[in-house]
Amino acid sequence: MGATTRTRVRREHAESLDVSGVRPRLGHLRLGVGVMPISGWRRREDLEGGKQIRVWLREDGDEELYVENLTYRDEGYAVYVYDVESDEWETIAETDSRADAVEKATDWAES
């Protein structure tokens, strides 16, 4: 098969794909779980990975907000806030849904 034939086949295949159910990536929205910026907080993506799904730092540096994946120990997802000054953790929410955990975290941060 020549280069022209391969290009035509790829173009025909791409034109036949049904993407009607796919949401586009826009700015800070991600597929699966929408992530909107939280006023007064900044994302800390370099800390995300492993069990940390989302990490936000309060702009004044006093608190850190975590959404963690605890499914490796059959516990679902959890939202924690860490008070930097007092060195204390508080559980905000626990849920079986990743999307629900992110929503609870953003709701807490905006309250």
Q: How much strand content do the residues show? A: 25-35%
Which sheet architecture does the biggest sheet show? 5 strands, antiparallel
> Can you tell me the number of structural domains?
1
Structural class: alpha+beta
Q: Which blocks of ≥5 consecutive residues have pLDDT under 50?
A: 5-9, 22-34
Order of helices and strands: HEEEEEH
Estimated radius of gyration: 20 Å
Strand order of the largest sheet: 1-2-3-4-5
Q: Shape from CA axes? A: globular
Average of per-residue pLDDT values: 77
The tally of strands reads 5
Count of individual helical segments = 2
Report the span from N to C terminus.
Answer: 61 Å
The percent range for helix content is 10-25%
